[in-house]
Description:
Elements: H1 6-17, H2 23-36, E1 43-47, H3 53-60, E2 64-69, H4 72-84, E3 90-93, E4 105-110, H5 121-133, E5 135-147, H6 148-154, E6 159-166, E7 169-180, E8 185-196, E9 200-212, H7 214-223, E10 229-233, E11 247-252
Parallel strand pairs: 1-2, 1-4, 2-3, 4-5, 5-9
Antiparallel strand pairs: 5-11, 6-7, 7-8, 8-9, 10-11
Helix pairs in contact: 2-3
Amino acid sequence: MQEKTFDEFYSKFYDIIYYDKDYKKECDWIENALEKFGISGRKILDLGCGSGNHAIELAKRGYEVVGLDRSQYMMEKAAEKARNDNLKIDFIKKDIRDFDLGTKFDVVISMFSVISYITENRDLLSTFSNVKKHLKDRGIFIFDAWFGPAILHQKPEPKIKEIKISNSEKIIRLTLPKLNILDHTVEITYKVFYISESSFEEFEEVHKVRYFFPKEIEFFLITAGFEKVHFFPFLKLEGEPSIDDRDFSCIAL
């Protein structure tokens, strides 16, 4: 019987597993997007902030950031990292589908395909409506998600990732996807193994991730009150996403 939940285990090793994700580059892109769309406000809400890497990097750049996530373990980890960097960031445990912070922001971001974890239409509309409610006039919503045409073209495949922590420690993660065409989702079984000289831990969990098509995203955003919706290849501000782009970036105003 596992002593830890998958969430507790995964949050502990999250930053190690995603050591190769370039958060600084993504925050550079966010700042470029704000400049492109004429946003000068400094107050940002980070939805599904996880262990706080985007929030912390943006706070270092002088933004006033609030991070929101439903994982208590991730919130605790993010808060600890912020304290270690002497940063004042409010990390709040909430579900992005249903929250009310009683304040408005210049920018709402939701990075690392968090929106793709919203698999039901009613939850997607609720999330987008919450975002709109928390944006100031002329505020901007920035997020990325899985791009449907590319997912269907490329077809998700099993992957294995091995991360060496030290000479005596490593993590092995198996990613086993199952495509559901009618449901517009991919069911991903994660099997994670922690191996050291003195211990061995194994955890498994299934994640359901949704891929989107531009017209459906546009429909839900417009229904939620947004007026303009822009689609780009991931981390670009020109061009259109193609079947070679597994992820797309979306900016709604």
